[in-house]
Amino acid sequence: MDRMRDVREAIGEWISHIALRSPARLALGTFGAVILLFSGLLSLPAATASGERAPFIDALFTATSAVCVTGLVTVDTGSYWSAWGLAIIALGIKVGGLGIMTLASLLGLAVSRRLGLTQRLLAAGEARASGLGDLRSLLRTVVVVSFSVEIVIALVLLPRFLTLDYGVGRSIGYSSFYAISAFNNAGFTPDPAGLYPYAADFWMLVPIGLGVLIGSLGYPVYLNMVRGWQRPRMWSLHTKLTLIMVGALMLVSAGFLAVFEWSNPDTLGAASTQETIGNIFFQSINQRSGGFASFDVGQARETTWLLEIVLMFIGGGSGSTAGGIRVTTLAVLLLAIVAEARGRRDMEAFGKRVGTEVLRGAVAITMIGVSVVVVGTAVFMAQTDITLDRALYETVSAFATCGLSTGITAGLPPEAKGTLIVLMYVGRVGSLTVAAALALNKQRRVIRYPSERPIIG
What we know:
By secondary structure, the chain is an all-alpha fold. The chain contains 19 helices and two strands. A two-stranded antiparallel ribbon has the order 1-2.
């Protein structure tokens, strides 16, 4: 007993040492370990409908896509995996949506009733808490919002599946799966045909779309809105920018999608006006991160692909289940452009000044994201004979953890699947987290060089 206690203490001290020295590396390692765990579970014969062991590359791809809440698949989710396999995928989505470090802190809080400094720092980084003092309230908000929204969505969808004669057990399983997948912006569907058969079924599309929208806002926004629901004017700048950017991008997306696809008979052109409008708004929510599709994206026009590539790269809110560079990053870049165009020294919004360090972070996140996508697309094209338009769409979807696809994922060679696995992993843990994990040390310079302004443009 004493020896076991000594081993546990030694392991705890080792983990604490790594966490304090490099929390980013610990987060990367933990996330990778969880992906491998779910890969092993999906490799079991009981996880497939045929009872045969799934190829490891497909099990690893599906596990990565689930834990990274992406939605890209190499095999049909509804027909290839068994009920046990679907349960594993749903659990992977839930774990990935909450965030590994956040989940670890929740478990630690439940056991010890208090959080250590290391756990607080790690969870604050994962959930984008504004400060350590907000962490306990933020974690409570994470649990309440995520489970409440998922339960409500499942209860709304359950009667619909019962009317389709799915049976009680299957209806409960499907409604729960869709609820978890929607709120966590995962895009997985347990139906073999996906959402295509429900393109005119608003009983299905509305709760799923609302779940994706709520999940893409971010836990800091929920916390701020819950605390100040009676005084919207007192909401934080982050909350205001997130809500404005999400609403604006939805309208822009819906407008361009209507222009590009209204007359396309292979997507929206053959539907009624009511169905078309409903699908446009449903797709405008999912284009940034949700990953659900009510029509065949592979049949859409290339202009629509370009629109979706841009929207996927932007993604959702910080600290949310969405991916991409995040809407507040785009907002800061736009504020910098406005300030420069007006000749102002500071970036300002809603009576607040945005510091230059925030702009540096936004530029860094954007440039790292662009670099990862460019390199990933080049590698992906070298591994396949796929054209640039489809290759760029697939790699951006993987990096932005969106999950939309033009239909090429299932036929990819193993090495191309590996490239998408890496992109999903990098996109979920965050570009800056990867950069911090690879950095050997930090340097604090006491001496600063004299400034000089180069000519720009």
